[in-house]
Amino acid sequence: NAGVTQTPKFQVLKTGQSMTLQCAQDMNHNSMYWYRQDPGMGLRLIYYSASEGTTDKGEVPNGYNVSRLNKREFSLRLESAAPSQTSVYFCASNERSEKLFFGSGTQLSVL
Amino acid sequence: GDSVTQMEGPVTLSEEAFLTINCTYTATGYPSLFWYVQYPGEGLQLLLKATKADDKGSNKGFEATYRKETTSFHLEKGSVQVSDSAVYFCALGNTGGFKTIFGAGTRLFVKA
Q1: CB of A25 within 8 A of CB of A4?
Q2: Over the stretch B31-78, which tens digit does the pLDDT of each residue have?
């Protein structure tokens, strides 16, 4: 009963380092999403993939890239991390804007 | 554009008190409305939803009614428990795309 699995759970980076956050879902959902959560700002959409082979920008895409590797997997890459990217990152999936299923989150600190 | 506004927190209540968390929305079309809950250290999970006007969503003693005339979807619970302490997010979806729009979240503390 895995649902949405994100790795890693915690990460500390230095400014300028790169890293990739991994996400996989086992519910055969077409759509996958990356959100960031910051205090007082709720969840903001970074990128989404409506279906395998497509990706689109969300509200706050700058500084990020994504890859929809296959139907199960959707990764988020920070090419050159900045302190402003310190946040909690959530991956989610669903079908046609219905109920979202979330991973447990990645807490990222950029020093 | 579409948006969700919910009351600022934190909200602090004693056990068995009545809870209301206000949520209003702006949307074109006919969105579905959701309440998600986030317990400490976890991702969000769906608490309840409503898909059309006058629908009432309910789960675990929580209720919310989709009010098109007031564009609201207020969350209520008659008697809160310490275990209800969490952050609650109002959201709207199915707005012509694939993007769910979230409110800022309301943190609830329930004291024994």
Answers
A1: yes
A2: 899 999 999 888 999 999 999 999 999 999 999 999 999 999 999 999
Cα–Cα dist A81/A13, whole Å: 7
Cβ atoms of residues B107 and B44 within 8 Å:
no
Q: Which helix (H) or strand (E) holds A3?
A: none
- For the cut 70, the answer to whether the pLDDT of residue B97 exceeds it is no
* 3-state secondary structure (DSSP) of residue A105: coil
**Measured between CA atoms, how close is A80 to chain B, in angstroms?**
26
Facing residue for A50 by CB, picked from B36, B95, B98: B98
- Please give, rounded to a whole number of angstroms, the shortest distance from the CA of B2 to a CA of chain A: 12
Question: What residues of B are in contact with residue A98 (Cβ under 8 Å)?
Answer: 32, 93-94
B66-95: pLDDT as tens digits: 999 999 999 999 999 999 999 999 999 865
Cα dihedral angle (B58, B77, A38, B29), rounded to 10 degrees?
Answer: 40
Q: Which residues of B touch A50 (CB under 8 A)?
A: 98
Cβ of residue B49 closer than 8 Å to a chain A Cβ: yes
Q: Please tell me the predicted confidence (pLDDT) of residue A1.
A: 66
